[in-house]
Write a structure and sequence with these properties.
This protein has a single domain, classed as Electron Transport, Fmn-binding Protein, Chain A (Pnp Oxidase, Chain A, Roll), CATH 2.30.110.10. The protein is built from three helices and seven strands. Strands 2-1-5-6-7-4-3 form a seven-stranded antiparallel sheet. Strand 5 and strand 6 form a beta hairpin. With 128 residues, the protein is α+β, with helices and mostly antiparallel strands. The radius of gyration is 14 Å and the shape is globular. The chain starts with 5 loop residues before the first helix and ends with a strand.
Length: 128
């Protein structure tokens, strides 16, 4: 499903993640992401707004613009299939390598616990 857009998905473009608030209004956040085994993965800290929203309501949407061509993008509607802290510290370091060229995520704080969200694409569209 995502294969058609792998050129965009493998670049350093940010995903704009849309989640649903408790009052049913949308909330968006630019996030780092990667793709593994046909799933979109994002990483956040426990108890951030997007974490709370996805924990309580699993439907999400992502819009990813090609950083080299603003008229090229992929739009994904999906569902959170998994939320795990297992491997989340390594995953944020992997994303730091992709987005910052650094081996370790430099903004980690002692009190935060990282979590990975695995999102199953349900509907994918875009323009190349």
């Amino acid at each position: 499903m995502l294969t058609k857009y792998e050129t965009i998905l493998n670049k350093k473009g940010f995903a704009h993640l849309a989640t649903i608030m408790a009052d049913s209004t949308p909330q968006t956040t630019p996030v780092w992401f990667d793709v593994k085994n046909g799933y979109i993965r994002i990483n956040t800290a426990i108890n951030r707004l997007k974490d709370r929203n996805m924990r309580e309501r699993s439907n999400v949407a992502l819009s990813i613009q090609d950083p080299d061509n603003p008229y090229s993008y992929v739009a994904i509607r999906g569902e959170v299939e998994e939320r795990t802290t297992e491997g989340a510290d390594d995953h944020i370091d992997l994303l730091a390598k992709k987005y910052l060229g650094m081996d370790k995520y430099p903004y980690r704080t002692n009190e935060e616990v990282r979590v990975i969200y695995r999102i199953k694409p349900i509907k994918v569209s875009g323009m190349e």
